[in-house]
Amino acid sequence: MSTAEPSFSWGADVEARKASPSRPRRRSRSHSLLYLRAEAILIDAFLLFLPALAVAYLATLLFPDSGHFFVHREPAPGSQEAGAVLGGPGVVLVTALAFSYFYVCEAAFGQTFGKRRRGLRVRAADGGQAGCNGVSARTVLRLIDGILFYALGAFVARVTGRRRRRLGDWAGRTVVVLDDAAMPVHRRPALWQLAAYPVVWLVLAGLGASALAHELSERESAISLVRAYAAAREHGEAARACSLLTRGQQLELVAIQTGDTYGRASASECPRVILANDPRSHLLNPGLPALAGSSLGVARSPLGVLAVYSREEPGLTLVETREHGQLKLDIRGLERAEFVHSCASFGTVSSNACGCTFDLARAEGQLPEGAVSEEDLADLRADAHRCGAPADLGASPPAGGSGLRESTPG
Q: Where are the domains positioned within the chain?
């Protein structure tokens, strides 16, 4: 590098400048650049803590049903501890606010409050004023540099040269230096330049928090549904337990307990049989209360079906699906989703007709076997025509089809 380039000395003369008599007394020789930057981060974190929590709390009040910013944590089974935790959407929102603080301060003034208190300033690596794009890059890279409270950033800065540049500095072509009176006055960018990146981050954070809140709500609803079903059976609330199942699943349970074929089974018989203990069915399994009382996890299949499981009861898995817009239990949910996906992929039968065909086949004692082939399309179209409203399922005899098989109770 040519000695004519002003970037040659930026940040590399830290020790010499600290030893200068013109430096304030509060900086001793033991204060390295990294140490000063760590102190600045602590000051900024302390400054951001209460405002960030206040904004997250306000968001919780504004969106109590789907915000998931502050989430009331129920006590775990066998524990009395409860409290409130900052949920995933809250973390996304707080991160966007922190990004905005660092960006606006460093782009407008060249330093945050913490850096100002420790006599530091952000400059371009060539010695000029850091631009908005460079400050934005070093701000976003805090996601990586900040791992283990900036341990990764400190390590990178420590091993990559005397100018102590973390990943964000390399990406933004910036460097943090000791401030002094000889440094040129920082020119403040236009207002739109200061606002552009924070607005983008906050909009993206809002969209991400909304999507994450919806997913968390779906998962929590699935777990609540499993526990509600187990509690209804345990307390003898047969009608309520049946109401938490899809109609097709009710027919399966009746067929299991009565020995009837699915075609002869009636969903109205569900309350009479649902309180039985039968290891042949996940929904009637004697181990269901233990499953519901354990630490439940939720996994989503590639086709979007939710499955609730527990490591303590690995043999039991309950699948959630939607019927008439409501979340219901149905252990055939994965099979149904796979059948509808392959059936609708040909484009000649709608997804609704494919789903109705699956429910009709199950009610009649037959289930689709494997993926739908072109040879099955004629039968599928015929079944779709005779597949009426859910109340009509199982009312007519099976028409048969090359893609169907006799099912066993599940």
A: 6-72+81-189, 219-330, 332-410
166-175, 207-216, 353-362, range with the lowest pLDDT: 353-362
Contacts of residue 296, Cβ cutoff 8 Å, sequence gap at least 6: 223, 226, 227, 308, 309, 310
- Tokens in use for 246? 């899809």
Q: Which two tokens stand for residue 292?
A: 């519901």
The mean pLDDT value for 222-227 works out to: 90
Rounded Cα distance between 291 and 295, Å, is 8
Measured CA to CA, the distance from residue 221 to residue 355 in angstroms comes to 23
278 vs 29, more confident:
278
pTM: 0.66
Query: How far lies 156's CA from each of 54, 167, 276, 399, 406, in Å?
Result: 33, 7, 62, 69, 63
Residue 341: pLDDT above 80?
A: yes
Cα three-residue angle 259-282-326, rounded to 5 degrees: 100
How far, in Å, are 15, 28, 108, 165 from residue 32 at the CA level?
8, 9, 26, 13
**Nearest Cα residue to 337 out of 377, 378, 388, 371:** 371
For the beta carbon of residue 246, count every other beta carbon within 10 angstroms: 25
Who wins on pLDDT, 278 or 20?
278
Predicted confidence (pLDDT) at residue 410 exceeds the cutoff of 50: no
More confident residue, 124 or 258: 124
